[in-house]
From TrEMBL:
It comes from the Bacteria. This is Cytochrome c oxidase accessory protein CcoG. The lineage of its organism: Bacteria, Pseudomonadati, Pseudomonadota, Alphaproteobacteria, Sphingomonadales. The keyword Iron-sulfur applies. Residues 250-278 form the 4Fe-4S ferredoxin-type domain. The keyword Ribonucleoprotein does not apply. One of its GO terms (cellular component) is plasma membrane. PANTHER family: FERREDOXIN-TYPE PROTEIN NAPH (PTHR30176:SF3). GO terms for molecular function: 4 iron, 4 sulfur cluster binding; metal ion binding. InterPro entries: 4Fe4S_Fe-S-bd, 4Fe4S_Fe_S_CS, Cyt_c_oxidase_cbb3_FixG, Electron_Trans/Redox, FixG_C, Ig-like_fold. Keywords: 4Fe-4S, Electron transport, Iron, Iron-sulfur, Membrane, Metal-binding, Transmembrane, Transmembrane helix, Transport. The chain crosses the membrane at residues 27-45, 79-100, 149-171, 183-206, 337-355. It holds the Pfam family Fer4_5.
Length: 476
């Protein structure tokens, strides 16, 4: 007798989530509307920064290496703010998971939001769960092909809108839109839209829950973040079992629990799992099964909450006949408070740094070849390349002087020694770095290597200063 080789891969079981209504479904609608609106509207918001800076509220300007976010402008040397935002996002995710399980996955993750949107389109075009199953099982025909093509076309339009919106975060949106439709945009813009359209279409339309269960690392990481005090979607088996059909449970109520085995909680699940089998990696904590079961409980006249958001501690308390703690106590346990403190500390540090950062600075690099030179009057000359950064979106007058070097005179490569003086005045254009080649002449007597500092002062009404340590080299 021959046996078929054992396959390491299980064939995907189709998931056809049934439409459901209830508190959590409406919450999902609201989160979907807000997140999609933020994604699609943000690049079109304007923010007046004056005539020298872009007026797009949120812009990642790769060409000029700037990140604009409303009143905040991040320069490349301030990348630590972006790092801080990423740390806050990471800790924020830990905080949410520790408090309410995979609520991010269930409500706000882009994969969830777009899959949900695609499923609504599918229900709208193919009908609810049973009609979808029938259509899937039906033999291919002209009618089936037409319905498939119609659905895929709508999915493709959504995917194109998704990929298309992304590029507007990287250039002035109205200009890029015009260039895009007239065929004059950069080829990277078309390539980006094509890639994102394809990935949205495939991930949202076909891969769906497989991304959450097999591809995403987050379900594996989150298990380390959940404990007996984390809120998770729980089936109260001590109340539901022994399950049986409505007829049986009504005939012998003492033998059966509250679950009437109607499978509505499974039918609405977007990942196709049965929460009655306990916590599983496939549960994204969307709580749609709570809505479905609550409706069933209402119809058969039993208390709601057979499936509920609760912690393991509260579930054990309820099982033992004690009252569960108030939800706020479930949310505020030690781990959540630690994450909240960490998240707030990083946020406060970033706000403080943003509020106190200088909008101008100076840096200097010394010429090494030759490092020092004796001039005809016996003084020693050193040369420097000095950079003045103006982070404001207007031109600023600045004065460069030298501190801690007695008898020094300065001049630039534009004027020459005859114009040597004790300060150099210049105007730095908006949002830019001005480069000066600066020469310093100082008396020959003194230390071979003498510390001093360049200082820059803005001479307009707002003022501001910065300082850059340097050293002056003499000849033996
Ligand atoms: S919806 Fe409620 S009653 Fe129906 S099978 Fe699920 S847990 Fe049981
Ligand atoms: S089991 Fe319930 S909470 Fe978990 S994914 Fe399915 S419907 Fe959502």
């Amino acid at each position: 007798m021959t046996t078929a080789p054992l396959s390491l891969y299980e064939k995907r079981k189709g998931v056809y989530p049934k439409a459901v209504d209830g508190f959590y479904r409406r919450l999902k609608w609201a989160v979907m509307a807000v997140t999609l609106a933020i994604y699609w509207i943000t690049p079109w918001l304007r923010w007046d920064r004056g005539p020298y800076a872009p007026d797009q509220a949120v812009l990642i300007d790769l060409a000029h290496r700037r990140f604009y976010m409303f009143a905040i402008e991040i320069w490349p040397h301030e990348f630590y703010y972006v790092a801080g935002l990423l740390v806050m996002a990471g800790v924020g995710l830990f905080l949410v998971t520790s408090a309410v399980g995979r609520a991010w996955c269930g409500y706000a993750c882009p994969q969830t939001v777009w899959t949900d949107l695609y499923q609504h389109v599918e229900r709208w075009m193919d009908g609810d769960r049973n009609a979808q199953i029938r259509l899937d099982k039906a033999r291919w025909s002209v009618a089936k092909l037409a319905r498939r093509l119609a659905k895929w076309s709508v999915w493709l339009v959504i995917a194109f809108g998704t990929g298309g919106a992304w590029i507007f975060y990287f250039a002035d949106a109205p200009t890029l839109q015009h260039q895009f439709w007239t065929g004059t945009a950069a080829s990277v813009a078309y390539a980006t839209v094509a890639i994102l359209t394809a990935t949205t279409f495939i991930l949202g339309g076909f891969m769906r829950e497989q991304v959450c269960i097999y591809m995403c690392p987050w379900p594996r990481i989150q298990t380390a973040m959940l404990d007996e005090k984390s809120l998770v979607v729980t089936y109260k088996h001590w109340r539901g079992e022994q399950r049986g059909s409505l007829k049986k449970t009504q005939a012998a109520p003492t033998e059966f629990g509250d679950c009437i085995d109607c499978d509505q909680c499974v039918a609405v699940c977007p990942t196709g799992i049965d929460i009655r089998q306990g916590p599983q990696i496939g549960c994204i904590t969307c709580a749609l099964c709570i809505d479905a079961c609550d409706k069933v409980m209402g119809q058969v006249g039993r208390p709601r909450g057979l499936i509920d958001y609760c912690t393991e501690d509260d579930a054990n308390a309820e099982k033992a006949g004690r009252a569960p703690r108030p939800v706020i106590r479930s949310l505020l346990h030690v781990r959540t408070l630690v994450y909240l403190t960490l998240w707030s500390a990083v946020g406060a540090a970033m706000l403080f740094a943003l509020g106190t950062r200088t909008r101008m600075d100076i840096s200097a690099q010394q010429d090494r070849n030759p490092i020092a030179m004796r001039l005809s009057d016996g003084t020693i000359r050193n040369a420097f390349t000095v950079k003045l950064r103006n982070m404001e979106s207007r031109p600023r007058p600045m004065r460069v002087t030298v501190e801690g070097l007695a008898g020094v005179s300065l001049w630039t490569d534009r004027d020459g020694r005859a114009d040597a003086r004790t300060a150099i005045d210049t105007i730095v254009p908006p949002d830019s770095v001005a480069k000066l080649r600066l020469f310093l002449a100082a008396p020959a007597h003194g230390p071979l290597r003498q510390d001093f500092a360049f200082t820059v002062r803005a001479t307009d009404r707002e003022g501001g200063t910065d300082r850059e340590p340097a050293h002056f080299e003499r000849l033996q």
